[in-house]
Amino acid sequence: MDKGHGRMERRAIDVRSDLVGYLKFPYVGTTFRLDRQVSNLDGSAVTDERVYGITSRVARSEEGALALLGFARGHWSVEALHYVRDVTFDEDRSQVRTGNGPRVMATLRNLAISVLRLAGATSVAKAVRWCSRHVEACLRLIGLCRP
pLDDT for 120-134, tens place per residue? Predict the structure, then answer.
């Protein structure tokens, strides 16, 4: 159960290992069915969703099932990173498209976001604007200037 953002979400997971040798899919460790039920806190708009998944992780115990449930919930943290890259750094309109360039640029964007978050930035966009006006302070932040 999770409560937040004006809604209540209930998740249940059923993990299976009996399809491991049966599926023609490489590295199958566990299959699972995840059921989500979301309702607004006022009791309106109940939605039910069922998804199926395959993972290489072996989750035969209750702890393994809870870990899979946590991974399913935690995938949104990656989406948050992609949102920052898309909106703040306008990554979708990047002209870098050949060779290792796109991977290098994505790595540099991720590094910038991580450094700003570690420095305490709650808004990456605001921190990037601040850095554009305080270049020497930013260089100190990554250890390229003396304090």
Answer: 999 999 999 999 999
Nearest alpha-carbon partner for 136 in 147, 125, 127: 147
3-state secondary structure of 13: strand
CA 99/CA 62 separation, integer angstroms: 44
55 dihedral zone (left: phi>0; alpha: psi -120 to 50; beta): beta
- Nearest residue to 112 (alpha-carbon basis) of 99, 131, 94: 131
Question: Is 36 exposed, middle or buried, given 0-12, 13-18 or 19+ CB atoms closer than 10 A?
Answer: middle
- pLDDT for 128 equals 93
Contact 34, 51 (CB under 8 A): yes
Cut 0.70: pTM above it: no
7 membership: H or E segment, kind and range: strand 7-16
